[in-house]
């Protein structure tokens, strides 16, 4: 069996799973005396890890707090636009990026932040593992979270046929029929990945043409296992113990439903900004954190980078997230020198 499926220790001090990368709980470092970090980085995706590397190279002391090392990129079946790697899986990218940051001695806390308070000149971050992290500055790199269809059956069959991660759950649909909802790059990539596993893949999209890059669209057109159902919405997901069918808002081949074993939802994502109000951050009308060219937010001592920001023209890519992480790190080190 693939050690990633067993959750074996890979020798790097953490355990890899299909849908999450966590530090080996048996390898936790012993609790130390209270330490004040230069920067508490919330989020361990490309933005957070990039910032951690740069801050370490500036001889500063960052700490990375998160529970999905590599971020949502971890769930990508194939990454082909990261310089230096013509083709790499999201899993391998996450592994390399985390290992890179770890090589600088960056400490990681496998946890989620429950609250943030400012105490004089320091920030106190309360974690869900009972610990409190103190830092001079904060970098928000929490990324995005998947949107839901909000239709009957989606919540009921979550984990029983409804999934938001093809690379995590595709294996369970070997030689079966599945539907992918959406028309973006993520939907196209998921469909292509599933086509290597499943017997049949439907892409159900509300628009008249896929919005994916021409590269992905061409591959979909050439794949005999994939059928695109245009100008159609799913109104209900049906099943018993598991998913058995999707109901459409218009007939397809004379039928109002399609028999499927699984539904993969790929309709976009929204920024995860749980602490906007507590930190008095300015956000735009779409919920993204407003930042300047240095990735500084409206709150002194707080930066934001990656998919949650208004930076990089909201172009959600690994390379732009990593870039913003580096820019934020540079701005932080200049600010700390004041």
TrEMBL record:
Query: Membrane-spanning regions, if any?
Result: none
Listed InterPro entries: FAD/NAD-bd_sf, FAD/NAD-binding_dom, Ferredoxin-NADP_redctase_2
Q: Which Pfam families match?
A: Pyr_redox_2
Q: Which residues form the FAD/NAD(P)-binding domain?
A: 37-325
UniProt-recorded Gene Ontology molecular function terms: oxidoreductase activity
Keyword Oxidoreductase attributed: yes
What keywords does the record list, in alphabetical order? Flavoprotein, Oxidoreductase
By its UniProt entry, which PANTHER family does this protein fall under? Answer: THIOREDOXIN REDUCTASE 1-RELATED-RELATED
The protein, known as: FAD/NAD(P)-binding domain-containing protein
Q: Which organism is it from?
A: Candidatus Wolfebacteria bacterium RIFOXYB1_FULL_54_12
